[in-house]
Amino acid sequence: xxxxxxxxxxxxxxxxxxxxxxxxxxxxxxxxxxxxxxxxxxxxxxxxxxxxxxxxxxxxxxxxxxxxxxxxxxxxxxxxxxxxxxxxxxxxxxxxxxxxxxxxxxxxxxxxxxxxxxxxxxxxxxxxxxxxxxxxxxxxxxxxxxxxxxxxxxxxxxxxxxxxxxxxxxxxxxxxxxxxxxxxxxxxxxxxxxxxxxxxxxxxxxxxxxxxxxxxxxxxxxxxxxxxxxxxxxxxxxxxxxxxxxxxxxxxxxxxxxxxxxxxxxxxxxxxxxxxxxxxxxxxxxxxxxxxxxxxxxxxxxxxxxxxxxxxxxxxxxxxxxxxxxxxxxxxxxxxxxxxxxxxxxxxxxxxxxxxxxxxxxxxxxxxxxxxxxxxxxxxxxxxxxxxxxxxxxxxxxxxxxxxxxxxxxxxxxxxxxxxxxxxxxxxxxxxxxxxxxxxxxxxxxxxxxxxxxxxxxxxxxxxxxxxxxxxxxxxxxxxxxxxxxxxxxxxxxxxxxxxxxxxxxxxxxxxxxxxxxxxxxxxxxxxxxxxxxxxxx
Length: 538
What we know:
elongated; 25 helices; mainly alpha; Methane Monooxygenase Hydroxylase, Chain G, domain 1; 2 domains
């Protein structure tokens, strides 16, 4: 009995190793193509579903695809609707493992096929000079080990079944919830739904558990696969956490529906298996069941994706995200640009205030890292983009020339503020450089420069004198730092980095100072009308 348990654990370990080799090998062999597929084939939820299915089928790891998707959401490359489609497709793609196990893993001598494939894969990995070819060899070797691990699991579970007289679990009905929990825990512990499915399918094929209980365990394994997303999103952005919650809710809803109509689902599986002329074995039935309820869940949820995304968008709201939402841009004013100018003015005042707040935080807070200001940076950029998009939607054919001029100045100011926002981390890096022991001799110069920066950031209008003083301070700091690098008093790498930060901050000052010239469009339009009226009276 003990030897059999260790054999089961060894087979499971070999299976997990094989899955990792297949995933890593295929990801490396595919290179940037997988990134391209995930990043560019997801413009709609349906295309996202197709991309999620294809990539998961290729790399044989829904966890890897889910984590990659969360990474794209984290970086702002995918929105919630697109990423939800990928998650739905990934759930369907992970059913490929069940088909591999059920169709290839039973019915013939696995070792006779696996060992030559293993030899070919290892040979390719050792002989090939091209890294992508070596990665392909690793994937082929992993594919062979996949079946060897499955073979060990199969034989050891058959031994265990014989030792238990074949009826240990069949005669003791522990109920569907117990098997649901077993499938869930098996996936959470192994961090691989594929491994859990292999165990369930092998145990069912060996007669250890009946079909309905095995189906419940498959549902549990499907739900357990969400643990990877949950763990990877713990310290991620709010959007990434929303996606993880969406993944959990989708799998939970799909699992509950499948569990509620389990007899109907199993009847449909029997009908489909008969219609498709598939071998009537329990492993094939479970693979078909796994595919059926995932496809059913995906196509139920796909039309609801926009609403689902809006619901998730209300979760984990941060102060910065609320600030990033436009409050005055009314779509009903798009056809009357003169009235829209007032709404744009209100948002511009908020945007300038948000950007000023970001710059102040960077100047005044100590030991702040660039990652910590990212929420504020994203809020500024999001509101900035919303203003620009709104202006671009205004009916140009109905605009007076004065209105066109006012809105053009606003767009230009948005560009200034965008660059100032993007360059804000350079303030933190320059402050950090100024605290280096090598630059102690320039401490007063840096303090003077940062003091002038604070004055400029606090200003409500362009400050030519302050900006001039900042330029003078810049032209004092830069040559002194260059001299120190030449003399070896400051390392070249650190010196170049500090000079880059100094140049970035100089550019930031220029863009911020220009943005301070912005004036509300309504005031400009009113003064323009007054001037026109005065001219007519004279």
